[in-house]
Amino acid sequence: MVYPPAPWNLQGYAVQTLQLVDVARVRPLVPSELEIVSLLPGKTLGGIYISSYGLGSVMEYNELIVVSAIANYAGKWGAWISHIYVDNPNSVAGGREIWGLPKELATFSWEGSDSVKAAPLGYRVTVRQENRQLCSLNYSKQTLALPLPFSGKVFSANRSNLLLFKGEFKSRIGLIRGQLEVAEESPFASLNLGQPLLTLGCEDMRFTAGVPQIVGNRAAEFSY
């Protein structure tokens, strides 16, 4: 496989949902070294991120990220990604080998346009892996959007180390309506993700996935 070294600079469009996730449900999916941060009693913050990276990116592909928790390790905070899917084999290889992310292949179907109503809210993206559906997100057209920069940290893990990397966004971000459907056969159905508290549309997005840093050692090998 051929993929560029980190950092990766990507451009395109994304939809992000924010949901509360039961800590008890996500605990088996998070390395024991990480403390899950509770925003409410028994609840952490998670969500679904679906993006399409196009011209101007180091690599063109679609991506589904399942953020299942906010975690803490030695005073460092970051999101934990339990599941991640893309439609480019080189992205799978780079994600696994550079960042220790559990990328798998899937297919993405984007429907809807300003003139065609393809879903209850106008737009829909569906992600499938082989003959099973992973999830479907219906979302509305973005209207009012503000140019906002944003950065956050993400934990990941390889065979022996805990890693932390920074993601930096620049995008026109606005609130939109979103309806999430997670199939019963989906690998992340156990998270019981409900309807989003918030759904954000990110237009003219520029995203940089930074170089991962080792922040700790694994006491035992962790398998996603």
Automatic annotation (TrEMBL):
<keyword id="KW-0456">Lyase</keyword>
<dbReference type="InterPro" id="IPR010451">
    <property type="entry name" value="Acetoacetate_decarboxylase"/>
</dbReference>
<protein>
    <submittedName>
        <fullName>Acetoacetate decarboxylase</fullName>
        <ecNumber>4.1.1.4</ecNumber>
    </submittedName>
</protein>
<dbReference type="Pfam" id="PF06314">
    <property type="entry name" value="ADC"/>
</dbReference>
<dbReference type="InterPro" id="IPR023375">
    <property type="entry name" value="ADC_dom_sf"/>
</dbReference>
<dbReference type="GO" id="GO:0047602">
    <property type="term" value="F:acetoacetate decarboxylase activity"/>
</dbReference>
<dbReference type="InterPro" id="IPR039343">
    <property type="entry name" value="NDX1-like"/>
</dbReference>
